[in-house]
């Protein structure tokens, strides 16, 4: 009982603090409303829905840390921004030969766009987080795999590693090079939706422009967390032998979209996949070591047998 009480108290205090922060922050209203709603559910139901609280908590922490990069990014502007490194690797490993010289796949794709790819790539790129959460929720609550409780914690670990690399080794995305060139980095460059604007124009909406105009980091191209996250989902799908075709297709489309929309180089995705593989292996190892009993499931309490007396006091001798 004390353990459950402690978990409930800590969760509610943290949830109230989280909601208070959202109220005082200046993030997008819809974003704050969504996160605040999830946090409110965790606060209200954590004593009954322990598994849900453990499932949702790392997601709330991740979004909070992502938003705080607005404060942390200016603090590391003294770090040299790598503008040409990823592009040089891309040209060396995946360069496309053209009459105008070698081009990166991202550069080549900007000259070969189609409305179908604009719509498909834009949609999967916008919904990459929703798709991952839906898959994780299915494995945890639909398929009732207790060990799947660790998936959202693995996602948090992936993003924390990625955010740290973004801050300590900032790298320019391909759209930045297209707009500003390969000269000294323009640290004050505003975020852009890049190829995502084609999706907005195609549908007459402003989803990409609204979302990316408030991006917390411009120079966070390497690693690609879009690619790393969907690859992580595919790894769990293979382990659970569930939804393999869905997750493989999801991963492949996001990988294509990251390059087609001019947001990432292929090497950005490869690094994201490598980190995802490391996080996955570590998560599997930890789950095996700790066992399902540490994953948030409370053991069932057996009712006393009818007619049975109270249990003997500690130290009492057995009558048998």
TrEMBL record:
Keyword Transmembrane helix: yes
GO cellular component, one term: membrane
A Pfam family reported for this protein in Swiss-Prot or TrEMBL: PAP2_3
Key words of the record: Membrane, Plasmid, Transmembrane, Transmembrane helix
TM region positions: 6-23, 30-50, 116-138, 150-169, 218-238, 245-263, 269-287
Chief location of this protein within or outside the cell: membrane
Lipid bilayer topology: Multi-pass membrane protein
Localization: Membrane
Residue ranges constituting the Inositolphosphotransferase Aur1/Ipt1 domain according to the UniProt record: 108-281
Official protein name in the record: PAP2 family protein
């Amino acid at each position: 009982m004390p353990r459950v009480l402690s978990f409930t108290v800590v969760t509610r205090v943290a949830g109230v603090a989280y909601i208070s922060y959202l109220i005082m922050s200046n993030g997008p209203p819809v974003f704050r409303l969504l996160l605040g709603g999830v946090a409110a559910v965790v606060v209200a139901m954590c004593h009954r829905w322990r598994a849900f609280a453990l499932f949702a908590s790392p997601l709330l922490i991740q979004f909070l840390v992502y938003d705080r990069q607005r404060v942390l990014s200016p603090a590391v502007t003294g770090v040299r921004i790598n503008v040409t490194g990823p592009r040089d690797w891309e040209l060396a490993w995946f360069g496309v030969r053209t009459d105008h010289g070698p081009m990166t796949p991202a550069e080549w794709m900007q000259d070969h766009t189609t409305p179908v790819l604009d719509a498909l790539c834009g949609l999967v790129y916008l919904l990459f987080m929703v798709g991952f959460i839906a898959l994780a929720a299915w494995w945890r609550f639909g398929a009732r795999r207790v060990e799947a409780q660790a998936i959202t914690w693995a996602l948090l670990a992936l993003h924390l590693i990625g955010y740290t690399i973004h801050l300590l080794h900032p790298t320019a995305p391909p759209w930045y090079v297209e707009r500003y060139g390969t000269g000294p980095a323009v640290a004050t460059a505003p975020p852009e939706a890049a190829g995502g604007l084609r999706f907005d124009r195609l549908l007459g909406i402003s989803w990409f422009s609204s979302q990316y105009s408030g991006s917390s980091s411009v120079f966070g191209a390497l690693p690609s967390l879009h690619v790393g996250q969907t690859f992580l989902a595919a790894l769990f799908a293979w382990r659970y032998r569930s939804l393999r075709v869905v997750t493989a297709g999801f991963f492949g489309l996001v990988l294509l979209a990251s390059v087609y929309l001019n947001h990432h180089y292929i090497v950005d995705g490869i690094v994201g996949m490598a980190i995802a593989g490391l996080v996955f292996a570590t998560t599997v190892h930890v789950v095996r070591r700790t066992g399902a009993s540490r994953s948030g499931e409370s053991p069932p309490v057996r009712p006393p047998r009818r007619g049975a007396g109270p249990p003997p006091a500690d130290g009492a001798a057995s009558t048998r």
